[in-house]
Design a protein that fits this description.
Distance between the termini: 46 Å
Number of strands: 6
Structural class: alpha+beta
Strand content: 5-15%
Helix content: 40-55%
Shape: elongated
Amino acid sequence: MTTPFPLNKQPPLRYFTPSQNIEEQIGILSLLIDTAPPDSARVYTITPALAEYIIKNRNGANRKPNTAKIDEYIHAMETKRWPVTGSTIVFSKGGFLLDGQHRLLACIRADVPITTFVVFNIPDSAFAMIDIGRKRSNVDAFQIARVSNPGTAAAAARWIMIHEDDPMNRGKTWTNEELFKYYEGKLNSPTFHEFVALALDIEEASKDKSPGGRRRNYLPAGSLAAYLTIFSRVNRKQAAMFANQLLCNQRHGRAYINAIRDRMDANGGRLHEAVRNALFVQAWNAFRQEARPSKAIFTWNLSGDFPEIV
């Protein structure tokens, strides 16, 4: 994010105040965020114009605003019942707003400046411990961190962790902090994101119309991306080839899709996630062993041990 001031003519680092024009306020805020963040929270008065700049340019990927919460804040601001509290406007090291979206939106709509603590240089992953209005989900966490395809990436990370912990325990959950820490440490790579994007394409290509007119989802992208990523650890090139068979509905990919459709049709459109994943492993194993793609590949049921990946 660039500052509106030339590098050789940057203003001295100081507080931004309502008495400054909006260009000066933005310039000083940009320096505080990007160049020389203070070590501790400080009290600033944020004008509606500056709040609008922050929302438009620094808001990253915060979730959809809560209208009721904003209206509550607006009423407090308009009736001059908005004191300086311990709550802070939080900016991350990456330069994005982590906390304060609702207060800033209320400031804009009420057209009333707010005086508040502002803190800078907070790690981008800290969103996992920040709650505003309602608890953040795993998807919220990945979205605010600006992860590509956040919903599928979060689901894939969780399924990989389930596989490593116990492939049969589909209900296993982790905190936002735990899941994102795992993603940052073990998954944040071009390979993972390529398979996430490819899984979304496969999911869409595999859908069809059910008799009621709803599009049945045979291959959820989250678990698909998870196991393609796991397969890539065995052989990345072969994992990509296997994924392409799924996308093009060919050979072992077609056999797997047909097996999933058959089992879902026989069970009223439902399928246990462990079954779906185990059959996917069996399709991969058959692909790796160059076995003939047929229904005979898919022998697993819930009474058996989860198949090993070859």
